Amino acid sequence: MRAADPDVIILCTPNNPTGTPLGLDVVEAVYEAARGIVIVDEAYQEFAPHDAPRP
Questions:
Q1: Mean pLDDT of all residues in the chain?
Q2: Is residue 20 part of a domain?
Q3: For the chain, which has fewer Cβ within 10 Å, the N-terminal or C-terminal residue?
Q4: 53 lies in a domain?
C-alpha cells in the first residue's frame, strides 16, 4: 500500500460473496498506514457470521 500511496482505500467487511469479515486489528492497521481516506463499507454485514466482531 505504501508504494502505491492511494488517496482513498475502501475496505469491504464482510466481503461479498463469502461474508468474511476483517478484524478490527486489520482496519486499524490500514488506518494507521494510510495517508488518504479510509472507508469501511459494511453493506453486507447481515451476511457475516453472527459472532463476528464489527469494526
A1: 83
A2: yes
A3: N
A4: no
Grid coordinates belonging to 15? 466481503
Tell me what pLDDT residue 5 has: 86
Q: Determine the Cα–Cα distance for residues 35 and 45; give it in Å rounded to an integer.
A: 26
Which range of residues forms the domain containing residue 16? 8-45
DSSP assignments along 1-55, one per residue: -TTT--SEEEEESS-TTT-PPPPHHHHHHHHHH-SSEEEEE-TTGGGS-TTPPP-
pTM of this structure: 0.73
- List, for residues 7-28, the tens digit of each pLDDT value: 999 999 888 777 788 889 999 9
Count of helix runs (H) and strand runs (E) in the chain: 1, 2
Higher pLDDT, 50 or 39: 39
